[in-house]
Amino acid sequence: MPARLYVTFIFLLGFVAYANAQGDPAEIPARYDLARMSLEDGEVYYAEQQFLKILKIDPKHAPTHLILGRLYHHQKRNANAYRHFKTYLDLSPEAPDKATVRTLLNTLAESLKASGKGWVVIDPSTPWRPSVPPQPDELGFISIQGGTFLMGGTFENEKPIRLVTVSDFELLDHEVTNTEYFAFTKATGQPSPEHWREDWFWMSEFGTHPVVNITYYDAEAYCHYLDARLPTEAEWEYACRAGRTQAKYPWGDDPPDEQKANYGRIFKTPYPTRAVKSHLPNAYGLYDMAGNVWEWCADWYDPNYYKNAPTDNPKGPDKGFDYQHTRRGGQWQSSPHSLRCARRYGGEPSAQDNGSMAYFGFRCAR
After folding, report:
1. Are strands 294-300 and 360-361 parallel, antiparallel or unpaired?
2. DSSP H helical ranges for the chain
3. Could you give the C-alpha distances from 120 to 104, 114, 133, in angstroms and in order?
4. What gap in Å lies between CA 242 and CA 52, rounded to an integer?
5. pLDDT tens column, 70-82
6. Per the confidence metrics, is the pTM higher than 0.90?
7. Cα–Cα dist 236/238, whole Å
8. At 225, which CATH number?
């Protein structure tokens, strides 16, 4: 091959490889406008993904680095904010707002140094893990450091997405099991769930499965027995996201599979639940935050509550829509949509007679 043709061929190969890997630069203006409009409409997760796609096309797109820096700073994702602000200044050293951004950088640097022993937040495209793995106590409670996160999602009863702050709390790392609930009924005289057989021989096989057919009041009584309580919706969602302010699922943004959750199953066996801790935990060490059984939360359920809800330790409305309480997390039959951290439904607190309680379990907080 002549030298000139060879050079041209190599250049074209490189250009095609670059275009296939990065995307079309002509998309950037439209994608940037779409991302900004989505951000203004409260679709924060979608906007973030669009901005990140822009940077895959053009890693030196300074306006995107600036807006991601502001977004992550607002979300208190300090490591991400620092990285994008620094890149923005490197790309735009004479920007008119350079003094403001430089001040933010210095503040973030001090904050990151001070939090050296705390939780580590890294880029949303990589798996997140705490710097020190959480350890449950003898009952299985895990201490969760409070903070601010983006609560809500894109479904109507999940809107608007808003910044919510929760205080430190503890949460069981697993759904309460048949064995644990059986011990509670024996110690207190609390009635057993209606589906339990009197000979209890099946407990050896299913004792580690989550207890089901549990009313809201059953769950509340068990938690009180442990000097605990049911988690609020805000606590539950914060724990589900596990340090990532807008993670789609407990494990991140990847779709669910058999390793991550018990979901999408047809009722072919008398016990379609799985033993607790059969799937991978999230970054806080919490198991089955998606799938297996619905989990009761303390809050009354109101589909419109978020529109006027407080942002500091919200505890739900004063009364519920059709007297329902909130349930979270999906169950063994659920579709992937119901496994999302933001997904919320209501449930009648004592409706054992209609069969719906067969999907309901719980975990306690304190």
Report:
1. parallel
2. 3-22, 28-40, 44-57, 62-74, 78-91, 98-114, 178-188, 203-206, 216-225, 233-241
3. 19, 12, 11
4. 21
5. 998 988 888 888 8
6. no
7. 6
8. 3.90.1580.10
